[in-house]
Amino acid sequence: MVDVNVHFQDIVRLTQRLIELGKDNWELAVYPVEDHGFVAPSSWTDEYKRILKLFDNVLKK
Question: Is the separation of the CB atoms in 38 and 47 below 8 Å?
Answer without folding.
Answer: yes
